[in-house]
Amino acid sequence: MRRRTRALAVLVAAGLVAPLAACGPGDDGTPVLTWYINPDNGGQADIAASCTDAADGAYRIETQLLPRDAASQREQLARRLAAKDSSIDIMSLDPVFIAEFAEADFLAPVPDDVADATTKDVVQGAIDASSWKDELVAIPFWANTQLLWYRSSVAEAAGLDMSKPVTWEQIMQAAQDQDKLLAVQGAKAESLTVWINALVEGAGGHIIDNPEAPADEVELGLDTDAGRAAAQIIGDIGTSGVGGAGLPSEDEPASLTVFQGDRGSFMVNWPFVWSSTQGAVEAGSLDQSLLDDIGWALYPQTVEGSDARPPYGGISLGIGAFGKHTDLAYEAAQCIVSPDNQAEYFVTNGNPAASIEAYEDPDVQKAFPMYDVIRDSLDQAAPRPQTPFYNEVSTGLQQTWYPPADVNPDSTPPASTEFITAVLQGERLL
Amino acid sequence: MGSVLSTRAKVWWAVITVVVLVGALFPVVSIFMTSFKASSDINSGTFLPPRWSTENYEQILASGGSAQELFLSALRNSIGISLIATVIAVVLATLCAYAIARLDFPGKRLILTTALGVSIFPVVSIVTPLFNLWRNIGLYDTWPGLIIPYLSLTLPISIWTLSAFFRQIPWELEQAAQVDGATPWQAFRKAIVPLAAPGVFTTALIAFFIAWNDFVYGISLTSTSAARPVPAALAFFTGASYFEEPTGAISAAAVVVTIPVVVLVVLFQRQIVSGLTQGAVKG
Amino acid sequence: MNAQTGPAAEPPTHGRHAAPSTTEDRPTDRAPRDDARRGAPDAEARAARSDRARAEARLGWYLAGPAFVVMLAVTLYPILQAVYDSLFNYKLTAPDDRSFVGLNNYVVILTDPVWWQALWVTLLITVITVAIELVLGFALALVMHRAIKRLRGLLRTAILVPYGIITVVSAFAWFYAFDITSGYVNHWFDWVPGIGPDLNWFAQQGTSLVVIIASEVWKTTPFISLLLLAGLAQVPGDLEEAAKVDGATAWQRFARVIVPNMKAAILVAVLFRALDAFRIFDNVFIMTNGANGTEVLSLLAYRTSIGQLQIGMGSAISVLLFLCVVLICFVAIKLFKVDLAGARGEK
């Protein structure tokens, strides 16, 4: 049967692939580098084009689109890399999956000179997120962080001094008193893990105490004071109704809609909300007065008095270990992450740069008046656990810390610890 | 039911027709309306677009549109893969159904039972091993990598539909024509082909719908625009920025891929219904 | 998800009573009995006939063989492979750690509430959708059956539109209509108690399932109604006429004449639709992706094997899913005496 399938497969394949191959790579002998990009507003494709021009025939970069959410991006890449696919040259990687890919030897080692060049004048969070076991395994490209966005009118009415750090407690109270909605990401998705991690880290804890451990020795830091503090905040927002009815399905864009609405007050979200709101005002669907009312500050504190640890996101470039031109791919990656490109990408696509230099760019400063807060936030930001089992841990958290109204400081931390541990030991399904 | 209807019956039929039309078409109209909303009006919460905008269609169809390449390559894949899977299935099924309808041989029942079994097979059950095998032999993310599993969807129903069609063909006509002096080929072409063709065409139509509808294989066995079909590609659409919902673009793409379905249904409703109910060649 | 696949196989045969056949009306796979039935009078003739029968059999298999082999190759081989893979602890991102674990994967699955929850939700969706579709489908079948000529084309076209539409498109259409940020349903129906601008349909199990089932019903009812339409054609018109003359009401005619006469068709339609509904994937994947207790078996299998790349565990779930389908079939055929052979005209 097997031989039969294969024979048939080969036959059909020969007939079908042959005509298609014509539009494939290398008509003129120029090495083609395939760059798997996460969806954006065309910025990465533009960079690919300009680096292709700059390479002057040394290579050509072609882009392939990955799905929208991080988990599916990982799925697509891991599937191909597990097959030792040589067509993956450059990957736009969400930092949370870097550890897993590095551990599985999916990433080509970074040459020393490249490592030196691409970590100079780069925010520390981005370097940390691109490293595994103290070695740089991917190239920092852009770095993202969440800010606290607020409606000045609401903050003023609540008597909050937004020039000083505020706590979750305070903004919840302020929103509740004025019958407003707090915009956070309560949907069962990666954004929920982002939120949990920021809260736990903000209370001085960690989701995983020993992220480099093998699966059966991973120790979770959830059943601690920090974990309980995080659960308290999520549970309170869920049960008090201050998150609104949309909370259990609220992701980043949905949060923005809530924030822009009549009952908007505070929101934690990535900087894309700024360009997006500006665009809506220009298109005439939102009022200029709304834009004028929006303020920004550092992420709220979990515990009063201790520094917040804002979420860290962004994209690093991984070079596929099985590609035919890894040296060229690293050359191309260096071109892609040049400070100029990062600044340009920041302005056009709203994704903050990892390079400190890019923040000095006047265009960046004009497009993002909150550039200094973003840079400070990146300095304070805490990455999500860097473990090869990130997918299990994150999905496990999303199963147990959801919906927000069911999160309870007494039961959720131990229950999630037990569940995730069992999953890691292969005793439970996800 | 006589040809003269009482007024009451007329009213009843009018009501029934309206109810059926609304029920059957409403979701289509709904996504049609969404597809014409400007991105800033997506959350307007209204059924009709506050302003009619074609920006979503520009995004997927106009050159330079952010999802144009994604959508058009998916469209090409979907059409190509579904057509090839349909043709292969119909050719194999025609031979098979001819044998079942006209010849007597042991194992006939086994074949029909197998077709039945394959048609109720849970697709998800075989997607994992196929994924693994395809990775190893290089069929992952290729057209044949989808065409072959699509046969498991299109072949059984083609065999069933065609056997039923062929059983109703009065094959004596062929002999009669030969008696009248036609060569076997002429007899076949003049007497049988006109009777069999509608059945084959209807079967192809039904098989195409099935292949066109596939989602599980599409998302599991592809990973680039080299083979990704439309239903799978919809999950890859993106809004104006990384985080924005692609509601408008998805709706526009959904409308575009629904148009051919509606056209086919309007043109061939009679054949599809008879293909799915009686397999009768009513002409 | 392939609403059309299964059941369609069956209906074509309903109306074929009058179909003439140049060969045996009652084919069988046992050649000797064939010979016996032909009742050859003497040895020579019998030999000649069996020669001809052999040639016919050979030709039959030449023609039907390729289709048969392809069908087996695309299903039998993968499921056997899945059975084999399910005995290993095998994760694609850690291929070196692959180890034989026997039936342990099955033990883990069957002792895990996640499996039972998904099974329960799948069964719930199956039972509810099939029940609703049976009623709606019957109504539509009667409408198509009785419609006057002028309306027939229009009605059939309308009913066929959902049949032809991609399930994923249907899922998005329903999702966007009900979604709390982009939808209008909450605004339209806020006079209904329990529905208002604050109702988040996709935040809890009950309401999520309502929308999922609605989309599933919309998309697949046309199909079941076509099966039933085929059954309706089998009901002898004179019986109904006679009941009418005897003064039976419309309902009595329906319950006493129509339904009993198409019992076989109804059972087959229900079985096929049930098996199809049991595989539900697309609607759930698009609308909730399994959140809020809406995970179904197909989605669980997909997430485990394709999503988490746990080939071993995923294969085990796939095999169990397959066994569930076989079990349903078995129960239907043995317990409810669903006569597939009869329905497909093989008797």
Automatic annotation (TrEMBL), chain A:
InterPro entries: SBP. One of its GO terms (biological process) is maltodextrin transmembrane transport. The keyword Transport applies. GO terms for molecular function: maltose binding. Residues 1-22 form the signal peptide. Keywords: Signal, Transport. GO terms for cellular component: ATP-binding cassette (ABC) transporter complex, substrate-binding subunit-containing. It comes from the Bacteria. Belongs to the bacterial solute-binding protein 1 family. This is Extracellular solute-binding protein. It comes from Cellulosimicrobium composti.
From TrEMBL, chain B:
It comes from the Bacteria. The chain crosses the membrane at residues 12-33, 79-101, 110-134, 146-166, 191-212, 249-268. GO terms for biological process: transmembrane transport. Keywords: Cell membrane, Membrane, Transmembrane, Transmembrane helix, Transport. CDD domains: TM_PBP2. InterPro entries: BP-dep_ABC_trans_perm, MetI-like, MetI-like_sf. One of its GO terms (cellular component) is plasma membrane. Its main location: membrane. PANTHER family: INNER MEMBRANE ABC TRANSPORTER PERMEASE PROTEIN YCJP, MALTOSE TRANSPORT SYSTEM PERMEASE-RELATED. Belongs to the binding-protein-dependent transport system permease family. This is ABC transporter permease subunit. It comes from Cellulosimicrobium composti.
TrEMBL record, chain C:
It is found in: Cell membrane. Residues 23-49 have a biased composition (Basic and acidic residues). The keyword Electron transport does not apply. It comes from the Bacteria. InterPro entries: MetI-like, MetI-like_sf. Residues 119-332 form the ABC transmembrane type-1 domain. Residues 1-49 are annotated as: Disordered. Its main location: membrane. It is a multi-pass membrane protein. One of its GO terms (cellular component) is plasma membrane. PROSITE patterns: ABC_TM1. Gene3D superfamilies: MetI-like. The chain crosses the membrane at residues 59-80, 118-142, 154-177, 254-272, 314-336. Keywords: Cell membrane, Membrane, Transmembrane, Transmembrane helix, Transport. GO terms for biological process: transmembrane transport. Belongs to the binding-protein-dependent transport system permease family. This is ABC transporter permease subunit. It comes from Cellulosimicrobium composti.
